[in-house]
Amino acid sequence: MLNAALNRDALDARLDAFAGALGQALADKAALLAADLAAYVRDAKLSGQVLQARTGALRDAIVSVVSVDGGVVSGSVGVAGDIKYAAIQEYGGKTAAHEILPAKGDVLAFLSAAGMVFARRVEHPGSVIPERSYLRSSLDDKSAAIIAAFAQTPDEVWSRA
After folding, report:
1. Do the domain assignments include residue 1?
2. Are the C-beta atoms of 36 and 129 separated by less than 8 Å?
3. For residues 79 and 1, which has the higher predicted lDDT (pLDDT)?
4. Is residue 30 part of a domain?
């Protein structure tokens, strides 16, 4: 014969505490995982794996943000600021034909196969930029670890409660 005794008040208290502790643990874990993902984008994808850093502006603009709205915890990694080429590098695309004029002085000066060239203006035919995903590919690389980390959070919180 099996006899079980249940202290309902103690169980209710533990369950009530669990909900709040789980929400906080998920928010904390989201912040850590988003920061880790942002570091991966900066240190791997934008440091030679997908794109070579010229000025480092895109790499320096990668940020992680976590928000809690009611019972929903969401995290994101993206580009902060006005990095005009960020989206076309991520998704690819085509630039329109355009005229290039000197920003300083009266003429443009550049090297070509024929040597030094001077011009008052240059007609650029436009460019086709291939997709060089640094954000979406990073999420693909890390998604299994992120899902696993979130999945183990309830067990971690319950064992501490």
Report:
1. no
2. no
3. 79
4. yes
What is the C-alpha radius of gyration for the chain, rounded to an integer number of angstroms? 26
Q: What is the pLDDT of residues 131-148, one digit of tens each?
A: 999 999 999 999 999 999
Query: Are 29 and 106 part of one and the same domain?
Result: no
Which pTM does this prediction carry?
0.81
Please name the residue that has the structure tokens 């600021």: 81
Q: Range of 115's domain?
A: 93-129
Asked whether residue 67 falls in the same domain as residue 141, the answer is: yes
pLDDT digits (tens, 9 = 90+) for 72-83: 999 999 999 999
